[in-house]
Amino acid sequence: xxxxxxxxxxxxxxxxxxxxxxxxxxxxxxxxxxxxxxxxxxxxxxxxxxxxxxxxxxxxxxxxxxxxxxxxxxxxxxxxxxxxxxxxxxxxxxxxxxxxxxxxxxxxxxxxxxxxxxxxxxxxxxxxxxxxxxxxxxxxxxxxxxxxxxxxxxxxxxxxxxxxxxxxxxxxxxxxxxxxxxxxxxxxxxxxxxxxxxxxxxxxxxxxxxxxxxxxxxxxxxxxxxxxxxxxxxxxxxxxxxxxxxxxxxxxxxxxxxxxxxxxxxxxxxxxxxxxxxxxxxxxxxxxxxxxxxxxxxxxxxxxxxxxxxxxxxxxxxxxxxxxxxxxxxxxxxxxxxxxxxxxxxxxxxxxxxxxxxxxxxxxxxxxxxxxxxxx
Length: 376
Hints:
Blueprint: H1 5-15, H2 37-46, H3 60-70, H4 89-95, H5 111-124, H6 127-143, E1 158-159, H7 164-176, H8 187-207, E2 210-211, E3 214-215, E4 221-222, E5 240-241, H9 242-253, H10 260-276, E6 281-293, E7 296-306, E8 314-315, E9 317-318, E10 325-328, E11 334-335, H11 343-348, E12 352-353, H12 356-370, H13 372-375
Helix pairs in contact: 3-5, 5-6, 6-8, 7-8, 9-10, 9-12, 10-12
């Protein structure tokens, strides 16, 4: 018995100290980072600063610390930063051209930072994260135009590119449906954000493009006063755009108990997507000899290839007369063949895509939930 006793004591001691037997549970839960991917991608393309030292994706307070360090005095953030890079933020900012230090929603920016900080505050309770998110919300309010809507980086127009409008609106919709991450919002700030949300929704509905008496989709940019399709960059013409229209439709489908105006906007836009699909082609990569591309090199090109077995695809742009697909050179010249687009523009812009597939997949479920005739 005496020989066994020390062994039993050891077992009992180990059982009372679980840290010796198993790794500690993570202190915080992972927060999705996918909305930062576009900005990080642009950082990798254009930044002159390179580092392999990055924060762990589970290090939510480290990432939030980076976000706070890069936040501008106006409450927004500069675009195209690697938010997980272990770098001196002041050095990164000094390396940027002055224009690129400014806050913007472009390239899916600012609204993801607000969301992330709010969720870090939800887990940690640390006031600095709440303050950062609150300042971000004030930037949204300060930059909304009187008629409603937000502009992007390149032109003074209502901007749907890069989810500028829909990114902000989805964030505000989360607040309106009482997402727990925003329960800390004060009455006055919440009321102001909800008023901005209502103006934004009104703008979206007014911007839907009509061709020959039929509602279709939306342009990438619209005029703040007339809501008509507007010119963006030289190669972004007034048009109907499949990609951005899908972002808008998916946002509208999130609305609970949609009013008839919203339901009709969804129905007409989905019908236009069905009519705008292009059968018999695929948009695919082909291998080429290594070729310089911005600050790196690539070994592929893109082609629009005839393929009778390919699933339907959609163009980025459709004209305002016949909904005919088109492309544009950087100088604004309209063309109809991808081969006429320069190499850097073929790779640097999504001229064709399968964006509507997600819309068409979820549409029947939305229809069944909101159409009494279907749900019976």
